[in-house]
Amino acid sequence: MSDSRYYSLKQIAGFPIRYARETKTGMFLVCVIVSTLLTFLLRDPEFAKTQHLVLFLLFLSIGLWITEAIPPFAVGILIIGFLVFTMGREDTMDVKQYVQTWSDGVIWLFLGGFFLASGMKKTGLDTRLLLIAAPRFGSMAKYIVLGLMMVTAVLSMVMSNTATTAMMIATVAPLLNQPSGRQLSKILYLGIPAAAAIGGMGTIIGSAPNAIAVGALEAVGIQVSFIEWMLVGIPVALLLTLLFWLVLIKKYGIGNETLSLNFLKRTALEAIPTEEIIQKNVVLVILTLTVFLWLTSQWTGIPVAVVSGVPIVGLTMLGIIDADEVRTLPWDTLMLVAGGLSLGLAIQEQGLIVYFIDQMSTIEINFYVLLVLFSFISVVLSNFMSNTAATTILIPIAISFSAASGAVNPVVLPIAIGLCASCALLLPVSTPPNAIVYSTGRVEQSEFRLGGVFVGLLGPVLIILWTLLVSYIFF
């Protein structure tokens, strides 16, 4: 589930590795120098040594995430290593807590989602779900497009949006090769990656920024359950997908043309070995049980992190996922999230949040202005850098500002930032789904502007309004 610009560039045009290394070395040195200067300028004369170190680490991490002088996940490792090395030299510091973020509930929740996605992909359950849903799309071109986009959005709630996009593009290829389907190529090549990115809003495991928001709220003593997140994320994701579909239909003039989905029916009738059928059913049972326990965790009392053990143990014990599949899981995302949690813990422990809140206490900032500002900043930053890194930077800062502004409900701002990070669709390198589609050569860079502007402007507005409403009723 990598979402870095470097990953996207490799997908598009084989980014020259040697040139990249030379450039990134210079960027790293610049980040170190700038971070040192910022630490010197913004420090308080009464800061302890550990506070200076954490402040420097904060600026360095932000710089490295923005420039990607080193891969985003490597910044997460650097954070943990830096904290263990520097804080471990202080007799009063317990450095184990910075390493223990690897066992945080958010990490286990994400890992369970990765195992489910891997099991679905290996057994072809993801494709099978599409084959079941396909006949319900009808034969009209515009409704087939809507159906494909909605399936993409739903699958992205439990799978990597990158894997979902690749699977859907491969599946609909025969449709685009039909004489009557050629005019659909643009609309599908723009609609599917957008739906994959937007659909990730729906669940905590759907996108890394969602998990960052939940983890940051847990750090300040606020629990957001799986179903509570879905109450916020799913309606916005489905509505945005529907609205973008309407925009694409109008833009490319798709009317009442009919298309044939017989190629999907032929695929469905192909003989499937008994062993594969059994594996599909096993994955389906485990998926159903896991999602049910996630949704009912607040009533059963079983933590969502514990529930993640169901797919992890079940799929490996029954031989659905072996060592090779485990090695291919997106561990880099977990490294980035764990590093971000460690950084947030250090900032809070060293009192930097309290210090900057005190500094801002004299400034009157309206909470709703903050909400709008941070939501759109999240979209802008996520268009040009990893959306996981962007939320890792923004959410702790937003929580501090939120406390200073006297926010009535502290859950609104972090959730809005996490959701808005999935609205970044402006460039081919903004998300891996965009990069995958752009690499086919059938979409021009300028054509991504439609989704980037529409979703980037409307998305935050819908997210803000819906998050405020849901938080008022349920939180």
Structural description of this entry:
Helices cover 73% and strands 0% of the residues. It has 475 residues and is mainly α. The chain has a domain at 105-327. The radius of gyration is 23 Å and the shape is globular. The mean pLDDT is 81. Its main location: membrane. One of its GO terms (molecular function) is phosphate transmembrane transporter activity.
Write the layout of secondary structure elements.
Layout: H1 5-13, H2 17-42, H3 49-67, H4 72-87, H5 96-99, H6 105-123, H7 125-133, H8 141-155, H9 161-177, H10 185-199, H11 208-219, H12 226-252, H13 262-269, H14 274-295, H15 297-300, H16 304-307, H17 309-317, H18 323-327, H19 331-349, H20 352-360, H21 367-384, H22 387-404, H23 412-420, H24 432-438, H25 449-474
The SSE order reads HHHHHHHHHHHHHHHHHHHHHHHHH
Helix content: over 70%
Low-confidence stretches: none
Shape: globular
Rg over CA atoms: 23 Å
- Category by helix and strand content: mainly alpha
Overall mean pLDDT:
81
Distance between the termini: 30 Å
Beta-strand percentage? under 5%
Instruction: Write down how many β-strands occur, each being a DSSP E stretch of 2 or more residues.
Output: 0
- Give the biggest sheet: none
